[in-house]
Amino acid sequence: MKTIKVGLGTCGVSAGGEKVYAALKNEIAREKIPVKLLETGCMGNCYQEVLIEVSDEKGNDYMYGNVTPDKVKRILDEQIRQDKPIAEWIVKGLDAEMEDTFFAKQKRIVLRNCGIIDPNAIDEYVAHGGYQAIQKVLKEYTPEQVIEIVLKSGLRGRGGAGFLTGMKWRFCRQAAGDKKYIICNADEGDPGAFMDRSTLESDPHSVLEGMMICAYACGADEAYIYVRAEYPMAVRRLHHSIRKAEEKGFLGKNIFGSKMNLSIHIKEGAGAFVCGEETALIASIEGKRGMPRFRPPFPAQKGLWGKPTNINNVETYANIAWIITSGAEAFAAMGTENSKGTKVFALAGKIARGGLVEVPMGLTINEIIYDIGGGIRDNKKFKAVQMGGPSGGCIPASMGDLQIDYQQINKTGAIMGSGGMVVMDETTCMVEMAKFFLRFTQDESCGKCTFCRIGTKRMLEILERITDGKGQAGDIELLESLADKIRNNTICGLGQTAPNPVLTTLKYFRDEYETHIRDKKCPAHSCAPLLTFTILEDKCTGCTLCARVCPAAAISGEKKKVHKIDPAICIKCGKCFETCNFKAIIKD
Amino acid sequence: MKANDKLNAPHAKNGLAGFKVELWNYEGEQGALIPILQAAQDTYGYIPESAIDQIGEIVGLPAAEIYGVITFYSQFRLKPLGKYLVKICDGTACHVNGSERIAGVIEDELQASGNDTTEDGLFTLQKVACLGCCSLSPVIMINDETYGRLTPKKVQQLLKEYKTKAQNPQTA
């Protein structure tokens, strides 16, 4: 029988996936069409949501993009009943040469099941090789051997800092004590990152299985998943998956007939970015204010409730089962000398084809932006890419040939981070961008360290002054000096990396700062207080639209005559610029 | 959602008395404070002052410490919510795609700013860091519905729909 899968991750649902699903369901029932309707998670090419995939009896898969409820009838009619694929709606599966290259350079390990299986059906995960790795581990390996395999694979923590996962596990294994915990950090707080959300929504069991293998290796019998409460669908699917795994006997006591016991609890975060830091996360699970503490002792020695604890993030755990079944060598064969395997990136911003992509380490930035992402929207110019969120930095377009691996990215002043990649074009002001991130860290600073609490505030004030057209000579130097002090006088990653967005934009776009300060101009035409709006006499038709939307009554002119903006009254809100149908208003 | 199931049980819905009884289920559970606060907020839409003392009895912490936890996390509110919670995403991707403009339109339309509730009690605004649907940016959420690829016009239309819905509940 033919099947239709509807992508129902958060982005699919937001784009209207549930309405498409309902329309399909109704139509199939009404017309008694012999087809099986299924749901799945994120297919990756979010820019074409809503996505559905049709599979026929001959094993052909056709992916339809931008599906709306009114397209449903024709798809069922032609594709399902008459076996006639609708070429103009198909985005993948019909003709490889005609398709865009979104999928060609990807290698899916973490996302191996995403968009393929029904995340709520444990049997589908099992049918796709799920829970084989944990059984193999329990039967064939000692905990030390598992750690050895993970070490040999070269897997580094995917949460951002990139510490060797096997090492972390070994520290926890070797720590004294009978009671140990493992934690999955699913507090994906970086604005512009959604890798972990998609993985949890689309393939929750792969994360659970990775945690089970880790628990075996570390000798833990209790585990926590700390997940953002802002991800309700991920929370729901995790609860469901844990319950199903328990029912099957995959979790609980004597897992797969072994001596291993493991229970997994879910703790919902309460909206504090700093809780992504491991010691703050532990404090939050314990029910306290999520404030980081000084390390050492590291969580591997003294973690949750004072017991040895191993923390990894979602993507790290999702790699583990694949490494066990395919071998450490297969994983280590991908990537560069010091960064093995693949990395998932959330491609967003001014990119033509945004979505979730997984690529082998070592691809260049340009390959991701152009070959996978299809370049910049609206034929604008690629200016920079932001990696690593508020702890990372902006890498300029001129460095597009840079290979993506931990060392190379660190050299630029940005960090690999958890995988957010926000692309910017010529209309993005880099000073404003730095201000945006600093406002974020300033907001999220827990307040423990003086330099993070007050230093970021002072830096933000300087940036606000610059973008308001009140920058002073010496501001850049003051920013640099504050950045240096914040970096060296704070105890956790949030504070130590908070200046990065400012430092990298200063490094690569210093002239933009200078133009703001010296000439009181914004080269990207983005900072409103630095703009002047003027009406072009030869283009204005005198339609009066701008005068009507102007909230300050700064525009005057008679009907069918050229209008004028009074710069003394203009509040620079840009409403006239947006409303003009004749492109008669320019901003400079 | 263990905690929420309990608090949503019929006998727990009758105000604080029922609420207090339910709380005893958490006694002795390690790190229960945050789940209890989340459950309280799920029930009431915010954390009532009177609940703080009662929660304190259960978890054995002074009210000041509980207040400290409440104010630390952005999820918790000490004031009642409007009928519709409008979460305006200002994550990086939304930001570069014009979320500030969207926020401006919403503030203009609703005559509220920052994290306010409108005078009619219909809408509460909340700026959030990232809703995680970056490929649909700019994005807002109204209660549990997510709306993406927004333009100022679309937002105005959307808010109008919600206002009408609130005025004519039977047609909604």
Walk me through this protein's architecture:
The complex is a heterodimer of chains A (588) and B (172). Chain A is α/β, with parallel strands linked by helices and 588 residues long. Chain A folds into 5 domains: 2-92, 3-Layer(aba) Sandwich (Glutaredoxin); 122-331, Rossmann fold; 342-425, Ubiquitin-like (UB roll) (Roll); 430-519, Up-down Bundle (de novo design (two linked rop proteins)); 531-587, Alpha-Beta Plaits (2-Layer Sandwich), CATH 3.30.70. Helix content of chain A is 39%, strand content 15%. Chain A is built from 22 helices and 18 strands. In chain A, helix 5 packs parallel to helix 9 and helix 6 (143-153) crosses helix 9. Chain A starts with a strand and ends with a strand. Chain B has 172 residues and is of the alpha+beta class. Chain B has 2 domains: 2-72, no CATH class; 84-171, Glutaredoxin. In chain B, a hairpin with a 2-residue loop joins strand 3 and strand 4 (145-147). In chain B, helix 1 crosses helix 3 and helix 7 (99-110) packs parallel to helix 8. Chains A and B meet through helix 1, helix 10, strand 10, strand 14 and helix 16 of A and helix 3, helix 5 and helix 6 of B.
SSE order and pairing:
The complex is a heterodimer of chains A (588) and B (172).
Chain A: E1 2-7, H1 10-14, H2 17-31, E2 35-40, E3 52-55, E4 61-64, H3 72-81, E5 90-92, H4 122-127, H5 132-140, H6 143-153, H7 165-174, E6 181-186, H8 195-202, H9 204-218, E7 222-227, H10 232-247, E8 263-268, H11 278-285, E9 309-313, H12 314-326, H13 328-332, E10 342-349, E11 355-360, H14 365-372, E12 382-387, E13 393-396, H15 406-412, E14 420-425, H16 430-444, H17 450-467, H18 475-488, H19 493-497, H20 500-519, E15 533-535, H21 545-549, E16 555-556, E17 564-565, H22 575-579, E18 585-587
Parallel strand pairs in A: 1-2, 6-7, 6-9, 7-8, 10-14
Antiparallel strand pairs in A: 1-3, 3-4, 4-5, 10-11, 12-13, 12-14, 15-18, 16-17
Helix pairs in contact in A: 5-9, 5-12, 6-7, 6-9, 8-10, 9-12, 16-17, 16-20, 17-18, 18-20
Chain B: H1 2-8, H2 15-23, H3 33-44, H4 49-59, H5 63-72, E1 84-89, H6 92-96, H7 99-110, E2 123-128, E3 140-142, E4 145-147, H8 152-167
Parallel strand pairs in B: 1-2
Antiparallel strand pairs in B: 1-3, 3-4
Helix pairs in contact in B: 1-3, 7-8
